Amino acid sequence: LASCASAAPRRDLELQVPPEGIESEVLRPRPLLRRHLGPGPGPSEASFHIPAASPGPLKVSRDDALKEASEGRTQTTPERTRVASLLVQNLGHGSLSWYLWLGLLSSSLGAVLTGLSLWRGFCVEVAAEELVPPRPGHVTSVFQILCITSLNIGYGAMAATMAIFVLPKEAEQFFPKQSSLGLGLLELLGASSLLLGPLAGQLSDRTKHTLGRRRPMVLISTQLAMIATLGCWLASICGSSAAFGLCFLVQQVMWNGGHAAHAALLSDVVHPGSIGLASSLQAITMLLGALMGMLCFQALASEGLHYSGIYGLQVMLGFAFLPVVQLSAGEAPSSGMLLPGEPLSFGSAFRLGEERSPDFRLVMWEKAIYCICAGAKSFILFFVRDVLNITRGSDQALLLAEAALSNVTAAAAGGFLSSWLFTRFHIQAQRLAFAGSVLLAVGTQFWICAFFSPGLFSKTVLLGFFAVYGFGQGCYMSADLALAIDTLPDPDEASRYLGLWGLSAFLGAGVGGLAMSFVLELFGKTLPETYGIRVPQGRYCLHGYIALLLAGCVCHLYVGKLCLQIRSRRDYELDLSLLDRKGKTNAFLVETPSEKSDK
User: Fold this and answer.
1) pTM, rounded to two decimals
2) Lowest CB count within 10 Å: 108, 314, 347, 472, which one?
3) Residue 223 has pLDDT above 60, yes or no
4) What is the number of other CB atoms lying within 10 angstroms of the CB of residue 219?
5) Domains parsed from the chain with CATH numbers
6) What is the pLDDT of residue 26?
7) What is the rounded average pLDDT of the residues 266-290?
8) How far apart are CA 502 and CA 257, in angstroms?
């Protein structure tokens, strides 16, 4: 290179903004940047000098530069060249902010119009003697059930990308010195939104509307969640932690309220014999959304783009599948239905009604323990950074995307297998959940790959553990909703009870996530430093991750034990000889002794 440079003729170059304006971005050579090669032996002695373009410094403002460029009056000075370059960058950054503000305003206007339209559909009170109980569901078509559950694609993309990628990155951005505790606080903030789920479900159970009880809540909640997602995107690129926390809280509140009503929609319109199939399809669509989120994040990382672009995918999927659910549900109007008559109250929203199905509390408890274990997955980014010594952001993102891709692909395979077992062999949901919990316990022990030499083999071991975890997750999630619906104390209040079922995730995703961060802080930093092990600032040693993942293994095994003990509401009714229907018809038909003998 030195010989070629010495043999080449001297050339002087300058980058100047053309008279056509900044937007044309045409570059012309002018004498400004000079390269002088010394007589030394190699290219290391080459130096670069920028001569002064004027005897003294020249102050140029951005407004003057823009005005002169638009009028075709530019001077060939390095200061003006630098100002023009910065101006182009700022214009590009500002355009994204303006697009996000435009999206916020247009989405807010759409939500207002939707609210006004829904307000016109609320029904007047009907005489009590004309009210009829809600009818059991009738939908058995696989395609129609798939369309009804398609909204879970957007929900799955949000849940997977926020938990694995976005929240750890935002914690590093907003809390650089205590990223682990910052991540735990963000998870606690998101989990606290589940407190309003039962209240939103109680409102849905009592809604009398021409669209039915569930679809109005799903419609308005999803739109508000999309608005809050755009707010999170804008707060992330602007670096405002307070605005991000507020928008993130609103996003989680709206998603959880809409998700509870959406799950109750399945309970209302799907035939009781197809509940297991609907549960499997819901898990499959949620995992499909998670897969799309992983692929999008991997594409952003490979192209070197900012991770906050994942918010755009969440908004697009939410708005895309919302009309599909509204058109395919076929929910009957609730104007003439005999609905629960208790007034809305925060206290009655949390009543369990254990006298009809005592094991619903057990379902809530095992769900909470599962979410405690799932909270450990959020720390995989720190594991890759501290244990595998992958420090570059792009390399971290690519490895995490590959791990998540193997996880979600295996989970989808587990969901399809569960759907086949439900429809072909009518397998009990309890056994399927137990098998999934055991696989989850095995898949959490990916800390073993730290004892292999860094390279392709350790990476393959890590991806293998994530595939086992994903397959178990697909089996567990397919049986999870079926267990919750089978143990509902009163199917006519399905939305409130499913909101309570989602509230159990508050203990896991919130308190459990914060507890996991303290476990990592204690065993990965505090105790090692007490015993003389030096831990770099902002990092954690292997002992903390081993303690974290072993705790997750024990919790998953305990979840499997609880799942085997669950009995459905119908089992209790048969054992107690409660075969006559008291009160109102529910969504599950109880067999009489004559019907059972006929079978």
Assistant:
1) 0.64
2) 347
3) yes
4) 22
5) 2-88 (no CATH), 121-312+328-343+358-575 (1.20.1250.20)
6) 39
7) 85
8) 9
